[in-house]
Amino acid sequence: MAILLFAEHDNATLSDQTAKALTAASQIGGDVDILIAGKDASAAADAAAKLAGVRKVLVAESDALTVRLAEASAALIVSLAGDYDTILAPATTTGKNVLPRVAALLDVMQVSEVIEVVSADTFKRPIYAGNAIEVVQATDATKVLTVRTAGFAAAGEGGSATVSSVDAPSEGSDLSSFVQNILSESERPELTSAKIIVSGGRALGSNEKFNEVITPLADKLGAAVGASRAAVDAGYAANDLQVGQTGKVVAPDLYIACGISGAIQHLAGMKDSKIIVAINTDGDAPIFQVADYGIVGDLFEIVPELERQL
Ligand code: FAD
Q: What percentage of the chain reaches a pLDDT higher than 90?
């Protein structure tokens, strides 16, 4: 059994999503190789080589791979696929862009958003916005998987894998080009990798109140800020803060939901958080069904008080 893990990185640093997907790969069993597709990516490759349980790190560098455009990345993976039984990537924006293309080119099915490895060919994945868990057996000769990394601990360091270069095929590299990357500047941790998230819902009532109430608590905790879709749609919070089925899927150590009812579409994005605290005036709000700690009361009193106590 040989497994190829398509790494998430920005050439200079390796994302911890790769270390988490490596844990999933190790649970499948077999030799795990990490593929670093990039440009001037030796730092990311060195970091990958230090992860425990990696056989070798393959590095492919070209202009088209600088930001891992889907067409060039898929052509690269397909050129290596013959040596592997399983190809996987974290279910990130990049992974979700590249692997379906790989599966199509290999004419196999993709198993998306794996949350548990049952065996080398059988996996669990959420369906119906996380309301049911499907057990999928993949019978294709090559398994193509994206892994929801929230369910896997990051693999540790201690490895010393060999690093070798592979050729990046030219196919696909002229089909798309990178224009620009506009990142929202923030001092805060990024939502999907934050250890603590303070999230606000419709109850906040306005953008001013959202910033006045949610931001100080997030600042005090060094937390990322999240929001329900109702809060985003109403303009209280920016789009990229939305947590849920159509927003981001998060699993921090601590998720504090303030004035969020707990609709299934919101729960789909945060219910794997390790500890959930809910603040809501309605003691029957569904959010309390997933909360470890619930405070029934007015968030406009409780959140500032919590911040003062901290
Ligand atoms: P509400 O449901 O209106 O809840 C507000 C809560 O605040 C209530 O429970 C109320 O008791 C409480 N409250 C009121 N005043 C106070 C106060 N002073 N102090 C404390 N509590 C108070 N939603 C998402 O969040 N993310 C998604 O990705 C998402 N995707 C969706 C996709 C689809 C296809 C659909 C149909 C819906 C989606 N939704 C999503 C919307 C979802 O169904 C809910 O409408 C939304 O999550 C509700 O947001 P909310 O909890 O902020 O608002």
A: 82
